[in-house]
Amino acid sequence: MKLNDLTIEEITEFADSPAIFQQGQHCYDNGAVDQFFMSGKGIKAKVEGKTGQYSVEIRSGKGNLTPDCTCAYSGKVCEHIVAVLLYSLLGDPEEEDEDEYEEPTMMVVPHQGIPIAPNILQQLLRGELHIEDIFELIAQEERRNNVIPFPNSKKMTVAELKQEIQAFFEAVQGEEEEAGDDFNDSFFGLSELELPDLNRLFNQVKQLTLKEQIEVLWYVVTSGNLIFSRTGTVFGEIEIAEALELFAHRVQGLDLEMPQKEVYLNSLIAAFDWPMFMNEELDIALKEAMDLLCSTEEELRYAIATLESCGLERNSGKWVMDAYRRLGDEQNFLRLYEENLERVEQYLMLANYMGEVQGDIPRSIAILERWIAEHTPKTEDNLEDWADLYTEDCPYTNELLTDLTQYYYEQGDRPNLYRIFLLWLRIDGLCPELYEKIKPVAVALNCWEDCQRQMHLFARDDAEVLATIYLKQKNWDAAISLAEAPGCPIPVKQAVASKVKSSHPKVAIALYNELVHHYIQKKTRPNYQTATKYVKLIREIYLSSLKSPFQWQDYLDDLQQKYSRYRALQEDLQKL
């Protein structure tokens, strides 16, 4: 049995006995149900009983209803539960009675669509009233009844409007099931389908009293949440967002004060726990509705206390944080802001505020260090994780590391300064400027050898930069180690071989030889010619630096023999 599809027959069977059902019906008819709240999770309400007010809760899940009442009845389904179920199906009996016995009044509708009673029209024709007087009378009537007339349209009851809301969401779900995998998860995927139009419903709602409007608008929200609980997909987000906005405006129209307003605030507060509101558009709509309802400090304080007592989640925490800001409660605002830090720019903003505005430098540095502790990889193993970290928030990451570098430099804290330099290396890669900064610190801390290993590891595509640094400083051993490493880029091998051919001729020959074989394997005439250029450089080293023509001849003979079938290459080699 589902709350959305209840019938009188099902409620009768659900009651413990026919007598209990009759008592519940009598309870409902007498208007005993109060503070009624319905969501996708179930129903909560208060019911006036013989000895006081009872709390009723009916939880819905997996097609079953789990009822609970605080009365002394020892059975399962008491009269108060029956009364609440009837209320969910039939609406407020007092409001229905007003509609049922309201004497219809004949209306004359002028071209502008404003209903005018016959007696007023006669006074106008006799000249006893001016048109301005009529508009004032209409405005007074609207304020008295909280009704906005809608011409040329049959007034729908609350129950009929709820049926139309159900039809809208059920049709959406049916189209999803029929479309299957081709269905677009967004509601916009249904734009070309013939579905019930909730715009007409919103127009019809205007004809109801404020309390009826609130009931119907909230039913749109709970119905959307119900279909989300079934499908895991948000449908009708535009309509749900509009219903939330109208709901908040209509509640404000009641001009209630606390604690009478609590029941409506509780409805929105409970919605923060609904998974449907993880949807960005609906999350914004919910928070805007809360902002509108919480128009006084008392209402803000109540909403904050209620949400915090339930345990703040991501979206509710952000609303409470903003509510503290609206109250001017800086201490609690900063507390929640710090608890909800996510992006690197948020850490920077808070750190700058604490340092520049509050003058609390240690706390500012602690906030920046917290980002490092919580968001940087714990090991060096996965180089892609470090690269991704830089790519996501490049400017802010640089700014954060710059602030820390400056602080530790001013403090003369070499260990932390070196740690930040290594982080910069891992996140941003190597550049000549960073090399110049990190080397003296690493040497002073006796960890230069490990620092070079880190630079080799995190050079990534900047091996050419690293080679340029080593060669500029005539650090031949480091340059050779880089060039001999597996996967070293061709330009690096070429640059290193060219620079070390005098000091390390055999190393240069080995590097040039790798380049010779690399280009020969490409098997095209232009590449053979490039390989031959490197063979010439090898010949120069053998003859000029090593003074060993026999070794050169041996090298050339071996090369020609190895590639004896490469006719075009042989032609180029024979010209040497």
How would you concisely characterize the structure shown here?
Pfam families: SWIM. The chain has 576 residues and is mostly helical. Helix content is 66%, strand content 5%.
Describe the secondary-structure layout.
Blueprint: H1 8-14, H2 18-29, E1 33-39, E2 42-48, E3 53-61, E4 64-69, H3 79-90, H4 93-101, H5 118-125, H6 131-145, H7 158-179, H8 198-205, H9 210-231, H10 237-253, H11 262-271, H12 280-293, H13 297-310, H14 314-327, H15 330-339, H16 344-357, H17 361-375, H18 383-392, H19 394-411, H20 414-428, H21 432-444, H22 448-458, H23 463-472, H24 476-484, H25 490-500, H26 505-520, H27 525-545, H28 549-562, H29 567-573
Antiparallel strand pairs: 1-2, 2-3, 3-4
Helix pairs in contact: 1-3, 2-3, 7-8, 7-9, 9-10, 10-12, 11-12, 11-13, 13-14, 14-15, 16-17, 16-19, 19-20, 20-21, 20-22, 23-24, 23-25, 24-25, 25-26, 26-27, 27-28, 27-29
Your description of this structure?
This protein is mostly helical. Among the domains are: 3-101, no CATH class; 110-151, no CATH class; 158-293, no CATH class; 501-576, no CATH class. It contains 29 helices and four strands. It has helices at residues 8-14, 18-29, 79-90, 93-101, 118-125, 131-145, 158-179, 198-205, 210-231, 237-253, 262-271, 280-293, 297-310, 314-327, 330-339, 344-357, 361-375, 383-392, 394-411, 414-428, 432-444, 448-458, 463-472, 476-484, 490-500, 505-520, 525-545, 549-562, 567-573; strands at 33-39, 42-48, 53-61, 64-69. A four-stranded antiparallel β-sheet has the order 1-2-3-4. Helix 7 packs parallel to helix 9, helix 13 (297-310) runs antiparallel to helix 14 and helix 14 packs antiparallel against helix 15 (330-339). Residues 96-118, 142-153 and 181-195 have low confidence and may be disordered. It comes from Laspinema palackyanum D2a.
